[in-house]
UniProtKB/TrEMBL annotation:
Superkingdom as given in the UniProt entry: Bacteria
Protein name as catalogued: Glycoside hydrolase family 1 protein
Keyword Lyase listed: no
E.C. numbers: 3.2.1.-
Record's keyword terms, sorted: Glycosidase, Hydrolase
Origin species: Paenibacillus terreus
Family (UniProt): Belongs to the glycosyl hydrolase 1 family.
Pfam (any one): Glyco_hydro_1
InterPro entries documented for this protein: GH, Glyco_hydro_1
Amino acid sequence: MAKHTMNIPADFIIGAASSAWQTEGWSGKREGQDSYLDKWYINDRHVWHNGYGPAGATDFYNRCSEDIALMKEIGLTHYRTSINWSRFLTDYENVVVDETYADYVGRVIDELIAIGVEPMICLEHYELPAYLLDKYDGWSSKHVVELFVKYAEKVFERYGDRVKHWFTFNEPIVVQTRVYLDALRYPYEQNTRKWMQWNYNKTLATAKCVQLFKEKGYGKNGAKIGVILNPEVTYARSSAPHDQYAAHVYDLFYNRVFMDPMIKGEYPEELLQLMEKHDITFEHTPEELAIIKNNTVDYAGINLYYPHRIKAQTKAWNENVPFHPSYYYEHFDLPGKKMNKSRGWEIYPKIIYDMGMRIKNEYNNIEWFISENGMGIENEAVFKNEEQIIQDDYRISFIGEHLYYTLKAVEDGSNCKGYMLWAFTDNVSPMNAFKNRYGLVEINLENGRSRHLKKSGHWYKSVIADRSLTVDLDEEYK
Ligand code: BG6
């Protein structure tokens, strides 16, 4: 172990993130305003840990002022959340705004700005209205693309004068990967072609929102529009060509499928060929591809949690099973890896540095920041001291190491502007609900969802105040 101290640049973002559906709860939600997630929770409550879910969440809808006061206490520079598309409108076709919900969003934005926390707003963090899933098969439909752009316009009209950071989607690949590629979530339909169509339509929707944002001049006051992606930092098991190729194909299907069109304006030729070969090409027109080409994002938030290790697929494909990218790869279980056992995710902080270098070298060194990184831990109550403060030293080490590699990437020329922790308070995860806790602030479910800063909250506060990070590292980056 060696101690390292790094200075944090004055304008470097040190913030925290969350989303609407994972915090708000259903207070004030009207009939017909369910999101896809609400519907999944309503249909399949048994898969949600201890029955908790979006219904109660952290009750941020009623307690936002309390949480914002805690953000002030910690000194966050930025806070990201989403607007819940399913609640922002009462009529998705005619884009009729729910004034009560819109007032609440406006209040959150104003309160954040008033205390010096810059709001970052995502237009969708999985909150696809259930109505649009039922009626149009969700993102399968180009009509839904148009409705999303109309919704975005209403949002920009309302808050575009004061919000400087906009994002179309959080992790646009996730819902359809869990639902249509791997059939792990409601409504459990395996359909690789649909997976690819959703991927494409979300890219198209992003480009159309960027186009609208530019045409209407929402960027004139220095505001930017981007996307939050979750590219998986992929390492091949070995240097052998078959493993290298497996990792390369994995990267095409899960990372470059969004990074290339959204940042560079074009799909990789090799990915297009693979889609053709496996008959999963998305429906598209040359006009749409031109919109994608001409409307790339201003910047990108990158969510990074753990590395993905890949080896070549060795089993023969069952011809009766439709194509899945795992035709080419298998996951590789690295012996001796460091683990967060609660979440089952490997801990390897250098992923951030490696992503930083990749963006620098392969993505025109576009402006980016870590939009999520964090550690979900089970049964944190056992770490309480006599004053009932959770002593989450493991989280302090985790953040310290990851922030260190973020700052290293900056030092080595990557255009990285910040680090945002997932999450500000504990909140509801898909299915895992409150099982794994991520927050700087504890939500005590046994005590009316009361809020308490953890040791990491106090530590984060001192890092922000001092603009300096001191961390013990297992090994020095060379
Ligand atoms: C990110 C998502 O992928 O990971 C969040 O943007 C999510 O919504 C976070 O909560 C942590 O993952 P999980 O599954 O433990 O909640």
